[in-house]
TrEMBL record:
This is SusD family protein. Residues 338-485 form the RagB/SusD domain. The lineage of its organism: Bacteria, Pseudomonadati, Bacteroidota, Flavobacteriia, Flavobacteriales. Pfam families: SusD-like_3, SusD_RagB. GO terms for cellular component: cell outer membrane. Belongs to the SusD family. The keyword Flavoprotein does not apply. The keyword Membrane applies.
Amino acid sequence: MKKLIKITLFVVTLVIAYSCQDDFLEKEPSEFLTTQQIADAASKNPDVVKGTLTGIYALQFETGTGGTTGHDDFGQKGYDIFGDMISGDMALSVSTYGWYRASITELQCTTDFTFTDNYQVWRYYYRIIRSANTVIDALGGNEAIPELQENKYLLGQAKAMRAHSYFYLTQYFQKSYNPSEEILPLYDDLLDQNSAKVPASEIYTLIETDLLSAISLLDGFGRATKTEVNQNIAKAILAYVYGAMGRDGEVKTLTSQVINSGEHTLMSADEVLGGFNDVNTSGWMWGVDLTADTALYLVSWWGQMDFFSYSYAAFGDAKSIDSDLYDAIPDNDVRKGQFYTAGSFELMPIGKFYDDDRQRYGAAQLVTADYIYMRIAEMYLLNAEAAAKTGDDGTARTSLKALLTERLPDVSYVDGLSGQALLDEIYLQGRIELWGEGKAYLSLKRNKRSTTRGANHLSLVGETIQYDDERLTFEIPESEIQNNPFISDQNL
């Protein structure tokens, strides 16, 4: 039997669930519960673990989940900004308050483990992993297949979230995919405390195993909200994982399955100029409906990005599209209209991301515009990319044209592309389509490209940096080195 675990949220839930069973309260210890006792309770009542899973999803948008009080610490979307800036596609073009200025845009944190940004990324994803392990252990462990259908769905979601976090850790903390390189500690149950780094192959094996299991467990799951992971989201995450590993045939298969499921449709020309603020948009696969109850304000993705909110963007910290990338957008492309083209706020995404009020400084400081994590356009682009990499240019052109038909009046030029030229166009279109959505960094590494910053950046202008340059990868944080005896600054 696994060792005792201190009372957590499970205990509160269990007391509620079993409050009418006096003999249960009399027989069990008042201070500790074993994971076996939790598992026994969960096998009869899924609510025992449902609250913890809901808490995992909340970590994705709550502030301070990276362990700091910084105004760049607000969950997944915070690290989407980190990645977009490090990739070079997002420029900090005006800096008044200093967020992202030295640590991220000057690439200082990625070469100095004492910078807090390293700690934020590390703590956020490992916090989700530990919470996912709590759910997985409570439902019987890594090899379990719960009897209750609802518990199968809960287990599938927890495994998918654990895999998602490990995948992002591999991207942020390894320069390029190398199965034999020791990169991260692996924790797959609550018994794990401090551990040494293991080879990337072990991390990726767990990620793949988790996602394949999640896909099976989530078969038939009809989620209540887009905050939750369903089977298509698990498949999409796995497609990203396989893409990073170079397993492009499997990427093509998975993305085709997601596209052909018909669950989502591509955003229209009107929708891509509509503010990206409504999770109910069909093109959004995964996101969260932010409400007044969520209680997000300035410390949020909108607080950093939106000119039409009470935000840093409005008061003088401009996040803009890289000027060279903007110049690569054809004038007749609807996405050109996503960016402002005059004054000190030039090339900010004033036409892409905005609160519906569209009032500078924000009529209301409370954030209720929604967060996007993933949309179906990503699957079309991944499908096109994977098809092109496997020599299936016809499928690649078909998938790319399906997306571009919603963006350009004439996409016939795609028919003349093949080989490297086709791959280059897919890569460019992905950067344009998904600008500011946190996918540029993943694409840069997956496609082994370089980045050259345009003139509107505040630093490193004109410098070309390769995808595997150490400046584009985070450092294991100082706190981990101090607190984990199996990791030292000698084996980073």
